[in-house]
């Protein structure tokens, strides 16, 4: 099977012109896609006045549009997505089972309930649909409106949900989006866009979307595209490498919104070790946080702090719980988690090294790259904890939940906590260490697009906030804010 | 016919075995060399297996009782993480007793009587080991938050530089001769490359006044470790939470001196060299980037053709992710006045320089068994033809520790005899790093100047 050719999508039109090879190693390329330089004239929206058609569209229209699109994104009826799945081995780190399960999830993101929740939970439909009066304690009146902007979205590809949610967000804010697809998922965004063109050809929401692949940092593309004349914002996901390219182009008139790479952790309180049933239950929940989506997400657990204490009995509990965790990871259904498609050889070597150091570490499993649990015998994570992947967790025994805080920092996105009472106790403290999201144990990978993300509100930053202020000399003196002793404003 | 005493002599003292001939070392028929290497590898495995707990644990884990082919040892080649397989807190909290216990599992040297109660710094611990044992640990830069300690012995470095002498002063009639050594770094230190300084000073320069370093002071392991931690902490937004140990605060003057030295750059050094060594024959070993910096400083001052043309410059370490200009080597040759550089392919874990030949190929020294592994599975690729994969080595000179090591380097080997006449396996100069794709901790034999400066700036700021 040769490398697939992936079209670009330019404002309603599928483009196959001038395919060139991308990705892969050696002789073989991963896929072909239209030469991005040849697309440059059509990719951005150079004239912002052409966004006028979006102003007529209400949130209800968007909800209806996406509600019609959603059912057509079912894997059983969508040939574009099935094609993406078929070719995924050429680029995705996900196994076909897990990727298929992610695709099965897509329609649920497009339901009216889900879309309304995002609209209300992020910007608020009333700001998107018209001018919203706000309080004016100093007199006069003011109204605010959230207006769509022209943005390039440099998206991540570890999950196809990211492509879908980007398209939903852009539709909701009535923005004009150029999605730069990643090499590990070059097809999902195009597949959704092509389905939009089939569902609602010519619709403004279909025409204010472009999707293309170019290699991040390709100056021949980015020097020309990332200009204030073309775009207002760049929303960049993922690794430092991609953001580093982008920062070159930040200047007045181009705003950068970064969704930085993060890692996540877990704190399992002493209550989990009170009896066998609690140990089994918490190990099962933690296994979901570690293993779901093959531990490819930023929200997946990697270091699991367990409040077992560090005496002999505590270490024994931690090891026994680690064994349970390993067993539960292997028991996850294939649609949720499988052994990694590619197990990091560096990590495999690190596990080999720790097996020779039984004074400080116990390595459970991992002989067949199926996933492993490293139990530390001191209260500190392994030094390669940022490289944990392929369903490998590090269980770190601590004497108190507070000892786990030392390991948290600005890169810590999610912390799964058990029990709830401990989460409540920690929730004012964890943000001071950099933590951005707390969840009940077992729910770290349940992504909610209707709440803030990474300690900020990316959707609010995707719009331009415009104000309209009204005053008249009758109620607000024109000089009043400058000169408190100004003469009364009279007719001259 | 290989006899037992032959094998031991080959493994322990290759210079003697090959009759002091570099030519002999690199022209043995490949089949004979492989047989000799296998016999020596079996000797090391037999002698070390039950005396090195780490090796025994790995052999048990892999179910390996004996070695009948060179490839049988591939699963026993140590990953680089072996040398830092201790909790970082031992280092942060100065638990040198427990670090010594950890180290004792990697070496046959008896460390049970070593009293480390007086050690309050990494430098202090390494001082003690240097003074009381034959061990010479080479430490890494510690960029991952943990510092690697790679055990070697004084004897290994001495034997290496006796062989390097053959390169620069061939023939027994020159055995008493000494040469000026140009060392563009700190005078002493214990990082991978700095361990070479002492051996070069002793075996090549012979006396302190013939050893010309850029900075007079030692390069402190504590400063390097602190520098690496500070950079990591700053990147994670934790710098404010870091505590500077009192033992380091007390050494402020020393750090400030080091900072001044690092900030001064190469200008003063090249001027001194021009005054003292113009026209003299010198030997020098350093990193590509260091030589580039040195040549730039020299050329801008109008210094060209500085040394005698038969001087020997050994650049090693590759570009290490720095963007060197395309003609950097030409600048170094012009500055130094040598017709060509003698590149070496060396690393902290393996005691060999693996010098380049006139055909531009790195030749693996005969006491080092080369493995080229599948980068994903770690399985050895056939020892024939041309192969690209992950380089791994077994250093047969290692006699108190295990010489097997898997590098992070992507190499292309040609197992067939080289056009230069040598028969040892030879590598292309195009060497990549697998970790560059992942940004993982790199074992490097030198600290970056920026890392040092950051640490020293921070220290001075925190102390004011």
From TrEMBL, chain A:
Keywords: NADP. This is Long-chain-fatty-acyl-CoA reductase. SUPFAM superfamilies: ALDH-like. InterPro entries: Ald_DH/histidinol_DH (IPR016161), CoA_reduct_LuxC (IPR008670). It comes from the Bacteria. It holds the Pfam family LuxC.
From TrEMBL, chain B:
It comes from the Bacteria. InterPro entries: ANL_N_sf. This is Acyl-protein synthetase LuxE domain-containing protein.
